[in-house]
Specification:
By secondary structure, the protein is mainly beta. It folds into two domains: 75 residues, no CATH class; 188 residues, no CATH class. 8% of the residues lie in helices and 47% in strands. The chain contains two helices and 18 strands. The strands form six sheets. Strands 1, 2, 3, 4, 5 and 6 form a six-stranded antiparallel sheet that branches. Strands 7-10-13-12 form a four-stranded antiparallel sheet, with helices on one face. 19% of the residues are buried.
Length: 271
């Protein structure tokens, strides 16, 4: 009866651009085999169908060492196939529709107009300033929404993996991700469905907002804000000497952290 032993050298693995393994060759030695077919059958029965999330694709004799000893390679690869037998490709979608944000400061007051013989008060770019408050306005801000659909082997989609997706939902990237700097990408969650026994189709949804440096609010300069941090302004009464009226003046700018950071490598789709 043929005897099988796994060789713990000459193992080769390859990965794609997203850091996911796509192939692996695992070598075995077979002793006391009757012939090549007997060696292949022995390794097929001994080896696992799955290896690191890859599915066994082929078992081949690489070398006949002597009359009854063989070196056999088990080749594993991603096994994501459509109904017609073609490998499905990762699907990417995006839109730049943006989001809505309530702001109380403009980038710049372009002009001020007043009746003759009077001066329009300078509110330091505060929007809708009254004697009591600063009303502000809702504007569209740049937000890059994108999603990716990946086909992931069933062996990889464990309870722990699903929990990792759950824990990362609502977090921002702690390191660079898809070309965006840390703090710019918010993970909005994932949805998946199992395709038979072979794999899962999982769609990952993200939104990106740019980090900015060197902002100015009124006379307050050098403000730095990450994409998903929240900025708000504190105002106080001040006198506009030229207009001879009380105005609302920015006296403090606050940057608030409202989302936790997370390591997006845990998504299993590369970075």
């Amino acid at each position: 009866m043929a005897r099988v032993e796994q060789a713990f050298f000459d193992r080769t693995q390859s990965m794609n651009n997203y850091g996911n393994y796509v192939t692996a060759d695992v070598p075995y030695f077979v002793f006391d085999a009757l012939d090549e077919d007997d060696a292949v059958l022995a390794v097929h029965g001994y080896s696992s169908e799955w290896f690191g999330g890859l599915r066994r694709d082929a078992v081949e004799v690489e070398e006949r060492i002597n009359e009854d000893t063989f070196k056999v390679i088990v080749r594993y690869q991603q096994h994501n196939t459509t109904d017609d037998g073609d490998d499905p490709e990762t699907v990417y979608t995006f839109d730049t529709g943006g989001g809505t944000q309530h702001i109380t400061q403009s980038l710049k007051t372009v002009a001020r107009y007043s009746p003759p013989d009077s001066v329009a008060p300078d509110f330091k770019s505060a929007i809708g300033a009254t004697g009591e408050s600063v009303e502000g306005v809702d504007v569209t801000v740049p937000v890059y929404n994108f999603s990716e659909t990946h086909y992931i082997a069933t062996a990889q989609v464990t309870g722990a993996y699903k929990a990792a997706l759950f824990y990362l939902t609502g977090k921002v990237n702690s390191a660079a991700f898809r070309g965006f700097a840390a703090g710019e990408v918010l993970f909005l969650g994932a949805s998946g469905s199992k395709r038979g026994e072979e794999d899962w189709e999982i769609t990952f949804r993200f939104a990106a907002s740019q980090n900015v440096n060197g902002l100015a609010v009124g006379d307050i300069l050098g403000i730095n804000k990450k994409g998903w941090e929240y900025l708000w302004v504190r105002y106080a009464d001040d006198e506009d000497q030229a207009a001879k009226v009380l105005v609302k003046k920015p006296i403090g700018v606050y940057i608030e952290k409202v989302y936790e950071e997370g390591n997006f490598a845990g998504l299993g789709i590369g970075t």
